[in-house]
Every structure is written in structure tokens, then in C-alpha cells.
Specification:
Length: about 350
């Protein structure tokens, strides 16, 4: 089932040895769920990244086709595609440095991300198990929803396989920041590229906490409420507009490409790269909440420094109070799923 290898740009025999171990590993990126609404445009964007020498695509349908298509693009990386036959998943992840997972079903109108749990939890568990077996050193970027629960699932699977390293597991929340930056710029007439909005908490509804008091702009109370709601439920706008055919895929692919690119640069040794992500976090551990999204400085180890939230307004403290119990429930649901 492996197709579309381009032979011309294989790593030279010394390529792996000339980098430190983590940098050497940072060249094969696997996308699991690569034929999907997110997977395809994400793979297209990743094909354009010079830090990737091998893009490895897996899906239960059509990944060899997507790989064949992308492999005709005249950029250096090699592209391979795998279906589940002939140990395709094993081959897809073996030696991967980063495994990005957008596999699973997306929302339809009226659904919450938690409604996806029953289908996606099992998919993520199985993909994480393969990663644990065949790519135990890979960095994991989890897109599949509900992220609040799928990150604990991956973590518990890795603990079972005794390869757990919390610095290697990320829930991708980049889209929340991408959206927030865009929405604020629409209101303020600024360039969205220059907006650096901090969004913390989790990745669903009320667990998404924008810290607009840190944005450098002033908002009226009404603006603040409307903007906060739009950032928390921005995904619903897309679900509704797509009218039953899916949720955000293109903006998500953009966001996941940004995150993966940042992680690759950090793994190569670049410092000072900060991205938001949902990770194992000390911030609310004392309240029994093991995972939390905040700004994270990326490093050669993956998660470098987990940033504190900084000063919160009274309104943001209220948002935090509303988020924590929901987040706790979502995390427990993921953990219980693996141990049931
Ligand atoms: P989609 O249905 O278009 O694509 C999902 C792909 O996963 C399909 O190609 C399907 O064949 C594949 N798949 C299903 N089971 C699989 C398995 N066991 N192994 C490998 N591949 C498998 O869905 P879409 O729109 O790409 O969304 C994917 C996921 O991403 C959903 O769970 C969605 O909720 C989530 N999402 C997350 C966001 C975030 O900000 N973290 C934003 C938007 C969506």
C-alpha cells in the first residue's frame, strides 16, 4: 500500500548523524486521517515545509491517492501513503518524528464536540496505540475532537505502554487563537496578523477562555461579551454554514500547519517560539486538572516552558470558574475511557 515515493531526495547516509537526535527525528511527519477534510489541505501545506523530508499519510480510505497527488509537487520532500492493509499504519508511523492526528468524525449542526466522543475516542486510542508501539519517541499533535478528552486518552495509552512523556503530547488549540486574532481585528480595524490574542483553558465552548484584557485593545462590556462568545463558539459558525457537511477544515489546516511548523523549528533548536497548546500543565493541578491550554514555549524536548496566565480581569476569572468543572469532566471522561 505504500505508493508514490520520490527517489531523488532521500536523506543522505550521513543526514541523520549530523543532527542531534531530536533534530534528526524531526524530518518525517505522519498525518493520520490524511484523506479527510482537514487532512488533505493540511498535507498540502506540510508538503511546502522544507523542514520535512518525508510526509507520511495514513487514512482508512484514499491516503495512497492523496499521496500520489501530492508527490507530483516539485518540492523536495518524499510523500508516501498507506491504507490499513499490509501493516499500513505501522509503516506510516515508524520513524516519524511528529504524528499529527486529524482522524475522526466532525460535528454536524447542533452537536457539541463532546457528542463526538463515542466515535473518536476509539479511533484516537487505536492510533495512539500504534504510535506507542512503532513510534514511541514521536511528538503527538492531536486535532481530533473532543481535544479536551482525546489528549488524556493518548496520555493514558502511552502510560500503559510505559513510554509516557508529557512534553511530547499536544492538543492543537491554534485555531482558537487564529480565530480570536481575526475576530478582534475585524472589530478594531487592525491587521489580524499582528493581533496576539491569548486564549487558554480547553478546546470546546465554555472551556475556551480568551484573555482579551491582555490584548492591548479596550472593549466595552457588550463588545467583550459578544467577542468572547464568538471566540468560544466560532466553530459553530462554520458547522452551520457547511450545513451538515462538516466543520472547520481549511482554517484548521492553516492552524495545524502553523503549529507543526513551529514545533519543527523548535525541535531543530530555534528558541523563543511560543504557541498555545493544550498540554499536561502545572497551572491547575492543585484543583485536580491535569491538562490545560496556555501559551507554551516550544523546545527541543517539545513542551518547554508552560506560561502562567498573567493578570486576569474579573470577567475572565468568571470565565475560568465556568470552564474548570467542565474541563475536569472532559479529562476524566478520557481517562476513564482507557481504563474502563
Ligand atoms: P473528516 O470526516 O473530513 O475527515 C476525517 C478523516 O479521518 C476521514 O478521511 C476518515 O476516513 C479518517 N479516519 C476515520 N477513522 C480513521 C482511523 N481509524 N484511522 C485513520 N483515519 C481515520 O473530518 P475533518 O473535518 O477532517 O475533522 C477531523 C477531526 O478534527 C474531527 O474530530 C473534528 O472535530 C476535529 N477538528 C478539530 C479542530 C481543532 O481545533 N482541534 C478544528 C476542526 C475540527
Amino acid at each position: 500500500t505504500e505508493v508514490s515515493e520520490t527517489e531523488s531526495e532521500e536523506d543522505g547516509p550521513d543526514a541523520k548523524r549530523t543532527f542531534s537526535s531530536s533534530a534528526a527525528n524531526a524530518t518525517k511527519v505522519a498525518v493520520l486521517g490524511a484523506a479527510g477534510g482537514i487532512g488533505q489541505p493540511l498535507s498540502l501545506l506540510l508538503k511546502h515545509n522544507d523542514l520535512i523530508s518525508h510526509l507520511s499519510l495514513f487514512d482508512v480510505v484514499n491516503a495512497p491517492g492523496v499521496a500520489a497527488d501530492l508527490s507530483h509537487i516539485n518540492e523536495p520532500s518524499k510523500v508516501t501513503g498507506y491504507s490499513p492493509d499490509n501493516d499500513g499504519l505501522k509503516h506510516a508511523v515508524t520513524d516519524a518524528s511528529i504524528i499529527v492526528i486529524p482522524a475522526g468524525v466532525p460535528r454536524k449542526p447542533g452537536m457539541t464536540r463532546d457528542d463526538l466522543f463515542n466515535t473518536n475516542a476509539g479511533i484516537v486510542r487505536d492510533l495512539a496505540t500504534a504510535a506507542a508501539q512503532y513510534a514511541p519517541k514521536a511528538y503527538m499533535a492531536i486535532i481530533s475532537n473532543p481535544v479536551n478528552s482525546t489528549v488524556p486518552i493518548v496520555s493514558e495509552i502511552f502510560k500503559k505502554h510505559k513510554i509516557y512523556d508529557p512534553k511530547r503530547i499536544f492538543g492543537v488549540t491554534t485555531l482558537d487563537i487564529v480565530r480570536a486574532s481575526r475576530f478582534v481585528s475585524e472589530l478594531k480595524g487592525t491587521n489580524p496578523k499582528n493581533e496576539k490574542i491569548v486564549v487558554v483553558g480547553g478546546h470546546s465552548g465554555v472551556t475556551i477562555i480568551p484573555l482579551l484584557s491582555q490584548s492591548g485593545s479596550n472593549f466595552t462590556d457588550d463588545e467583550l461579551k459578544a467577542l468572547t462568545h464568538r471566540i468560544q463558539f466560532g466553530g459553530d459558525e462554520v458547522v452551520k454554514a457547511k450545513a451538515g457537511t462538516g466543520s472547520a477544515t481549511l482554517s484548521m489546516a492553516y492552524a495545524a500547519n502553523r503549529f507543526t511548523g513551529s514545533l519543527l523549528r523548535a525541535l531543530k533548536g530555534e528558541s523563543g517560539i511560543i504557541e498555545p497548546a493544550y498540554v499536561k500543565s502545572h497551572l491547575f493541578e492543585s484543583k485536580g486538572i491535569e491538562y490545560f491550554a496556555s501559551n507554551v514555549e516550544l523546545s527541543r524536548e517539545g513542551v518547554g516552558k508552560v506560561h502562567d496566565l498573567g493578570p486576569l480581569s474579573q470577567y475572565e476569572n468568571q470565565l475560568l470558574e465556568a470552564a474548570l468543572p467542565e474541563l475536569k469532566k472532559n479529562i476524566e471522561k478520557g481517562v476513564d475511557f482507557v481504563h474502563k
